[in-house]
Amino acid sequence: MGFLREGINEVVATTRGNAAPMGIICRNGALSMVLFRGSHTEANIRRDGWVVANLTADPVVWVRTAFEDLPPEDLVAEEVGGRRVERLRACEAWAAFAAEVKHETAEKTLVALTPLAEPVVLKEGVCPVNRGFAGIIEATVHATRYVQNRDPHLRALIDHHLALVQRCGGPREWEAARVLKGFLGDEKK
Ligand SMILES: Cc1cc2nc3c(=O)[nH]c(=O)nc-3n(C[C@H](O)[C@H](O)[C@H](O)COP(=O)(O)O)c2cc1C
């Protein structure tokens, strides 16, 4: 299981040439992902059969990878278990998984994950709990839906979390909030 724990672990998932926030579900030691159809991550996993889970505490990376492609130099290739995989260049830790589609519906694909090797920790250290960072994660999750349906309830949730970012975050969270508001593309910038 490496650095993942029981529950849903939010990571930045990298696949070939792509990065996006995704949840890795860990239940009774079994690892899986539920991917909404139509994402690059889903298509790449289907094609290549691998995914890398990246840990990063940089809130701007979470916002950017949710909405846009990173430049190619932000990804770096690694050889793991005979496979060439790609990870975030700037991450605290990463782990590569074989990924196999187990079930699919019109909207979602269930993928089972098997570790290809032990996780790699690049930066040791502890990270205090910060509601500003958590607010960026929550606001970004809602924003990925909001840009598709403009649901006012989602907008209220985003505004609630962005208010917490202002109160509890630091300069990097404030920068992430600024970037996120740009992607929301509305008057509330
Ligand atoms: C914290 C967080 C967790 C997410 N988890 C998932 C997930 O488990 N499955 C999914 O399909 N999308 C998830 N998303 C939404 C995707 O990141 C989003 O749709 C993204 O645009 C997909 O990018 P891609 O097309 O490059 O794969 C999550 C977003 C955030 C911010």
UniProtKB/TrEMBL annotation:
Superkingdom of this protein's organism: Archaea
InterPro entries (UniProt xref): DUF447_C (IPR049288), DUF447_N (IPR007386), Split_barrel_FMN-bd (IPR012349)
Protein's recorded name: DUF447 family protein
Protein's organism: Methanofollis formosanus
Residues covered by the DUF447 domain: 9-117, 130-181
Pfam families linked: DUF447_C, DUF447_N
